[in-house]
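Hi support team,

I'm filing this because I wasn't sure whether my run with NAP finished correctly. The job status page said complete, but I'd like someone to confirm that the output block is well-formed before I use it downstream. Pasting the exact inputs I used:
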Amino acid sequence: MNLSGNTILITGGTSGIGLELAKALQRKNNKVIVAGRDEVKLQAAAELGFQTIKCDLEDPDSIENTVRIIENTYPDLNFLVNNAGVQFNYVFTEVHTPFKRIQQEIQINLTGQIILTQLLLPVLRTKEQACIINSTSGLGAFPKSDGVVYSAGKAGMRNFTTALRFALKGTPVRVMEFIPPVTATPMTAGRPGDKLQPEVLVAHILPQIEREKQLLTTFKMRLFLWIAFLLPNLAFKILGKSS
Ligand SMILES: NC(=O)c1ccc[n+]([C@@H]2O[C@H](COP(=O)([O-])OP(=O)(O)OC[C@H]3O[C@@H](n4cnc5c(N)ncnc54)[C@H](OP(=O)(O)O)[C@@H]3O)[C@@H](O)[C@H]2O)c1
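And here is everything the job wrote out:
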């Protein structure tokens, strides 16, 4: 994948990992469009030279509006990064959770991104070189008890990514999964322990995107995925220690 001269949409590109990825790709001479809900963050992104779209992944009308803007204003789009996400931490078995709250976490982390991807496929498929990167999580491979709904949504996103790759085989669209390790962003602000800086993570995965690796991640996360697969009891202990 040539990492220059692309037109790129990054959902959740106004904060954390998405924003660092947007900056790195902008430095490589790509046109970068960032999407998010918060107008203050969108304004800050516009001041950094990004194109911006207000998009709420919980709202089907807002997703359709985003697609219309892409079709009309950025028909060259050939690169989609489904990066937006939220994580609500609570003990599922002890806290009564309103329907709306559960729906919100699944809609932002999974359903909204599936709908956006499907609606953008006609734009992406006409390009000589196109790519879709889906941000998932280690918790999508091995769940954590204080992130029950988040883990379920990310597991769904992992399977969606694999299925989409199979469905797009033989087309110019490459589908990659991105699993960040614990990274210092607003999402993890209240969490103790070691965190990778987002710019370090992004510098690490850019060459992997260039090589079109199916899984974009760090060595430690690859090791964790093997442990989760082969030694689930050990994976459970590792996650328990990181809480
Ligand atoms: N940080 C980590 O340790 C870590 C680890 C594994 C996976 N991940 C995944 O990596 C991705 C980026 O995470 P991050 O840590 O960089 O998070 P972050 O800094 O909290 O940023 C989240 C982004 O998602 C956007 N977003 C939230 N709700 C949205 C909605 N309803 N519609 C549209 N956009 C919405 C936010 O925009 P607004 O503020 O405008 O809503 C923001 O730009 C997420 O998918 C996350 O699950 C992160």
